[in-house]
Amino acid sequence: MLVDTAGFGNRAALLAMTAADAVLVPCTPSRADVEQAAKTLELVDSAARAARRAIPARVVPSRPKQATAVSRHAVAELDAAALPRTAAGIGDRVAFAEMTFSGRVPSGGDAGQEVAELVAELRKLGWLPPKPKAARARA
User: Fold this and answer.
1) Which one, of 23, 29, 70, lies nearest residue 42 by Cα?
2) Residue 77 region, left (φ>0) first, then alpha (ψ -120 to 50), else beta?
3) Hey, how many other C-beta atoms are within 10 angstroms of the C-beta on 52?
4) Per residue in 102-133, pLDDT tens?
5) If you write DSSP's letter for every residue of the chain in order, what string do you get?
6) How far apart are CA 81 and CA 91, in angstroms?
7) Residues 132/139, Cβ–Cβ less than 8 Å
8) What is the distance between the alpha carbons of residues 102 and 132, in angstroms, rounded to a whole number?
9) Containing H/E element for 2?
10) Cβ-contact 63, 90 below 8 angstroms
11) Which residues are CB-contacts of 49 (< 8 A; sequence separation ≥ 6)?
């Protein structure tokens, strides 16, 4: 299950974190988002202590403009702050905006490739189950 809450510091986010198996924190290429991502990861740590269990978390680079200095700088800032992040990111693509209307996750093109890379990474982390055998046979 995926729960999308409002940003850092609200009760719904804290409750979702406490119940979560893992937490993904989207982070756009801006100083404010990098700072908020760090605060959100601290909140996840607090929720994990309160729940008396590990709650793994990763920052997901979101809406980067490909090959721009600001996007590279934002990722460098996440790395310099030693914030755990996914290698895969979700770009600033029309297909993701369309998803809010259609409810369908992009499966083709660059957007579909980004989703596939993120899903594969989450599977490798053990945060998602492996592909069903029937799906593997068709792939």
Assistant:
1) 23
2) alpha
3) 6
4) 989 999 999 999 999 999 999 999 999 998 87
5) ------STT-HHHHHHHHH-S-EEEEE-SSHHHHHHHHHHHHHHHHHHHHHTS---EEEEEBSPPTT-HHHHHHHHHHHHTT--B-S--B---HHHHHHHHH-PPP-SHHHHHHHHHHHHHHHHHTSSPPPPHHHHHH-
6) 22
7) no
8) 25
9) none
10) yes
11) none
What are the pLDDT digits (tens) for 50-102? 999 999 999 999 988 777 898 888 889 999 999 999 999 999 899 998 988 99
The Cα–Cα gap between 98 and 63 comes to 14
Q: Which of 18, 32, 37 is nearest to 89 (CA)?
A: 37
Residue tagged 């792939």 (tokens): 139
Write down the pLDDT at residue 2. Answer: 73
Tokens of residue 132, six digits: 């069903």
Residue count of the chain: 139
**Whole-Å CA distances, 80 to 9, 20, 54:** 23, 27, 24
